[in-house]
Amino acid sequence: MDMLVIAPHPDDAELGMGGTIAKMIDAGWDVGILDLTSGEPTPHGSESLRVEETAAASRTLGVRWRENAGLPNRSLQPTLEARRIVASYIRQTRPRWLFAPYWQDAHPDHHAATEIIEAARFWAKLSKTDMPGEPFHPERIYYYYCIHLRQAIQPAWIMDISEQWERKLESIRCYESQFITGRPTEPPTLIDRFRDDAAYWGRLINRRYGEPFASREPVAVRSLRDFL
Length: 228
Prior knowledge:
Blueprint: E1 3-7, H1 12-26, E2 31-37, H2 47-61, E3 65-71, H3 80-93, E4 97-101, H4 108-123, E5 140-144, E6 157-160, H5 165-173, H6 176-179, H7 190-204, E7 210-214
Parallel strand pairs: 1-2, 1-4, 2-3, 4-5
Antiparallel strand pairs: 5-7, 6-7
């Protein structure tokens, strides 16, 4: 697998980097998503409904591999067992790159998810363990923004998703229970806010729509041609 996107809840991958997921799948990359929890309970959702919405969003983006780790929503913790579970998925899928939520967030599940993922990346390479699969260590870990803080963030780079924006928007709308049902209908709606955010990031790179990413390590490029 080229990329494994790990999300605290179903819909976080779509919100944070749905355009990039679609873009890389269009380019022939093998992209998977691992949701850590069911995301339930929520005011208008249910376990069965969220499964249906997640499947619809995956089809929209073209994602063929998507699993749920079954960890507890609302009480996600960076425990040794959670680390072992996620490391086992990493050993199974063997992604070149991992994508995790940005490390600062007001949502405790998001903060815990990042801790779990970073530790699991290290654990995945361990030998002499009862974890299934062969040792493996992803080359890089990058961070997408799906945060609950009003921050003036400074990303490491911004992906041009102008051609993929409508598919990203469609994938978000698949989660009707989360973003449409019971939400205000007067503009700006929540969907309007998502579009405004994507347009803001696009404007910064002189494109229509964009998605920001962070990295704890320096980002390498092969040529100045890689810069827009």
